[in-house]
Design goal:
Alpha-Beta Plaits; alpha+beta; elongated; 21% strand
Length: 240
């Protein structure tokens, strides 16, 4: 994101930095939002009487955003559906449970206020790009013949901070082909919660402890979850 020189008084800059930090945005982003809000208020006193079904609502960051009155659906949401998804007004209305008239008014509002709405959409995109990438957390599974072996692996990995949590599940029944024969065995499953960059160390530690010649080692990326839980998982792991 482009940076602009800010010659703010010391106390004003300090307060602005504190407010920006409390909202999880950069100082430049906060200043841009503040200016956009002030200019918008001075220019049109927010609601435009030419579009009675459109009103402004302040989001979590305090920035006024045009929405369809009584629905909370942002005008820019309608614009994206119509322009990027190439939906007709009738299709947009069906998608969001609106009337076609509401959709057409939202699009007309966008035409009248395009610079303002485009600026907000661009600011949101830049803010999204500024967010730090989440670490790649993983589930690694392996199976053992006995509960004792599984517990040894679990304890060792957690003690070494190669895993935040290892769940031992069992007994389970596994049916598999081994050396040309179909086998069935009782096993114990280890579900290991870790991070991708620790995989090599994880594999080495498991192979050192594992009694099997060819142990199961399967990785599944964690693609989402509770933010606080994911933060805990990552925070208890050692750095790579």
């Amino acid at each position: 994101m482009a940076r602009y020189p800010l010659n703010l008084p010391v106390q004003l800059k300090k307060e602005a930095e504190q407010r920006a930090a409390s909202q999880g945005v950069s100082l430049n982003q906060f200043v841009m939002w503040a200016v956009a809000e002030k200019v918008g208020a001075l220019r049109q006193h927010l609601d435009d009487p030419a579009f009675p079904r459109i009103t402004y609502r302040r989001g979590a960051a305090g920035v006024p955003t045009p929405v369809l009155r009584g629905t909370g659906i942002r005008v820019q949401t309608i614009v994206v559906a119509a322009r990027q998804w190439k939906l007709t007004p009738e299709q947009v209305a069906d998608e969001y449970g609106l009337t076609e008239f509401q959709v057409k008014e939202a699009l007309a509002f966008y035409t009248a206020h395009q610079a303002e709405i485009d600026a907000k959409m661009e600011a949101e995109q830049k803010l999204e790009q500024e967010k730090p990438e989440m670490p790649t957390l993983i589930h690694l599974t392996t199976t053992t013949e006995t509960k004792a072996d599984a517990q040894t692996i679990a304890s060792t990995l957690v003690e070494k901070r190669l895993a935040t949590c290892v769940q031992v599940i069992g007994p389970i029944t596994s049916t598999y082909r081994w050396q040309g024969k179909v086998e069935t065995a009782e096993e114990w499953l280890c579900v290991i919660k870790s991070r991708q960059d620790l995989y090599d160390a994880l594999e080495a530690a498991i192979l050192e402890l594992h009694p099997y010649d060819v142990p199961e080692l399967l990785v599944t990326p964690v693609t989402g979850g509770s933010e606080s839980y994911l933060d805990w998982l990552d925070g208890e792991l050692r750095t790579s």
